[in-house]
Amino acid sequence: MKTNEDLSKIVGGGYDDFWNFKGRYRVVKGGRASKKSKTAALWYIFNMMRHPDANLLAVRKTYNSLRNSCFSELKWAIERLGAADEWKIKLSPLEMSYSKGGQIFFKGLDNVMKLTSITADRGKLCWVWVEEAFELSREDDFNMLDESIRGRVKDGLFKQITLTFNPWSDKHWLKKRFFDIKGDDIFTDTTDYTCNEWLDDADKKLFEIMKRDNPKRFKVAGLGEWGIEDGLVYENWKAQSFDIRQFSRANGAKNGLVSAFGLDFGYTNDPSAFICMLVDPYNRDIYVFDEMYGYGMSNRDIYEKIRLMGYSKEKIFADSAEPKSISELYNLGLSGIRRARKGQDSVNHGIQFVQGHKIIAHPKCVNFLKEISNYTWAKNGFGLKTNTPAGGFDHLMDAMRYGLTDILSGERWTF
Fold first, then answer.
1. Mean per-residue pLDDT over the chain, rounded
2. Which domains does the chain have, with CATH numbers?
């Protein structure tokens, strides 16, 4: 492993207080590229090698999201600290073991009860890292996780939970629980891309463009400030777990549920966004059960992801402003892809239709929940709300409208 003298060069600046805090809760909200996750990963690997009796539990809302987040960051930290020979890494199930001591376990909060049965081969489970903590919509889930860290630890060790996240809404329980109060056992911080000395000019330029073109998003994604829910477009929604297999003609809609799939194109600055829904036309409910959300995706990447998700044969309505992309995706194998109909005032017509429904989003659709809790009406130069949605948190919102094209057409004929 690298020496202490090398450590400051490896970790960089901006996180001294974070690095040295030993209280119960260490909570950091930040913008994109603020290196909060990488710093946390470095801290865990460095300190687990100093304390062989320490064990770590890495958590996200869903288990499937761990491999490309916590697991990848911790693997990167092991290599950056020059310690690859001292760690054993398993992929199924995800697990890391230090040759001289502790283990790193990876769990999703899909089943909170399983967290109470974690037993380490050596030492105690004393540290927990909750990555993208904003995904935890229920404070009760966190409380159960908090209660799983118990028991006496050896001298020199301490029990601690670290939460890292992007602060998409100031109404989240995380703000009231940690940022609105002070306590000796709580450390909070807000970081942004300016403390990341390894960003090059091209990286920084993306933030400058965001600052110029989308100041609302820049405040949250760039500077790590709380997203403010002011003038939400959709208010009748909630996050709730459900099993789509429970729906049938017998216990679902009067005339059966209608499936709906929508796709919005993006690339570098905006994500490509794909949404999967079931619509109950009788009770006027929209169930959002799956999503895709990614930056820098080519059309082939989009096709492969949708194919792996199992939706390549579904009727998918995509942004009609991208006919070339739609044609390419059709040729790649999305046989049901279609152009979403657009016409005069189609955005507001679609919004009004959606507003007449209750939206139930599965908690695993974290990007949908992030967007819908920040999808607001734009304001004019006098600070008054207009009837046009603000940009920045509208990719899955647009995809939702596209996906409802057939149902919207039915509404139009009805009236």
1. 88
2. 4-222 (3.40.50.300), 237-414 (3.30.420.280)
